[in-house]
Amino acid sequence: MEALILLKPDASYRLMVRHKVFSWLIRQQYGKLLSLKWFLPPEELIQQHYSFLSDRPFFPWLVKFMTTLPILVGKIQVSDSGLAGLRFDLGETQAHIARPNSIREMYGIYGGVNCVHLSDSPESAVSEVALWEKYVELSGGVDVDFSEPANAPDYTHRLRSLASLIKQNLHRDEASKVFTELLAAESQLNNQHVLCEIILESFEV
Ligand code: IDP
Ligand code: MG
After folding, report:
1. CB neighbours of 176 closer than 8 A, spacing ≥ 6?
2. Rounded CA gap, 93 and 106, in Å?
3. Which of 13-22, 98-107, 137-146 has the lowest mean pLDDT?
4. Is the model's pLDDT at 191 over the cut of 90?
5. What would the pLDDT profile of 110-132 be if each residue is shown by its tens digit?
6. Mind listing the domains of the chain with CATH numbers?
7. Residue nearest to atom 8 of ligand 1 (CA)
């Protein structure tokens, strides 16, 4: 089957994290990465993609998170058991409680800011690929430069501890300021502040 893979904004723009996630995608033995390209998902696509979460308090944030900036989207050719293996590598949904050494523990920041979406079952893989292909061509190969960035830092674990302070309303302004500086140092984006804002907003809900 083909499964949907998305690098969420926290993985699409943080250079070292993008490189590490891509390295995992091409090194893993479970399936074959077929494509990855930049795409700005329209709101109605994300609302349908995450419709099962529409009554959750974080849903408006989640839609904004996934529709404010172009992200990397693609497909993986994988068997049922291979998909389970990839999902195991990915780790649990919320980044701050994901299994040590999982992708989300290593590169996700906190809560739903968890770096990667991957279809979570063979059934959702089929329906997600069909849904996304109504909006974007997903057969074009890997059309992105993933070479290792020179001197790009990876501050994931400091960002997580700052996120935890912000969530607890401790040193809030100072923590948000340092969070913004570290995220900017890791990332490459003209409108940096937009990425910071959508990530910081997740700690309010
Ligand atoms: P999954 O991405 O591990 O398959 P789902 O339950 O399908 O998890 O949720 C989809 C996305 O919604 C998650 O990846 C995450 O970004 C967000 N999300 C789910 N549950 C929570 C939560 O309790 N807090 C914050 N965000 C959440
Ligand atoms: Mg899911």
Report:
1. 162, 166, 200
2. 13
3. 137-146
4. no
5. 999 999 999 999 999 999 999 99
6. 2-142 (3.30.70.141), 156-202 (no CATH)
7. 93
Buried b (16+ CB within 10 A) or exposed e, 154-176: bbbeebbebbebbbeeeeeeebb
Q: Which of 117, 157, 171, 193 is catalytic?
A: 117
User: Which ligand ends up closest to the CA of 50?
Assistant: 1
Task: Please state, in angstroms and as integers, the Cα–Cα distance from residue 92 to each residue in 7, 10, 109, 130, following that order.
Answer: 16, 17, 13, 25
Instruction: Report the 10 Å Cβ neighbour count for 9.
Output: 24
Q: Distance (Å, rounded) from C-alpha 87 to C-alpha 120? A: 7
φ, ψ for residue 11, nearest 5 deg: -105, -30
Cα 125 to Cα 43: distance, rounded to the nearest angstrom: 20
Is residue 19 part of the annotated active site? The answer reads: no
Question: Ligand nearest 127 Cα, by number?
Answer: 2
Q: Whose CA is nearest to atom 1 of ligand 1?
A: 93
Q: What separation in angstroms does the CA of 153 have from each of 45, 96, 148, 174, 185?
A: 33, 20, 11, 21, 7
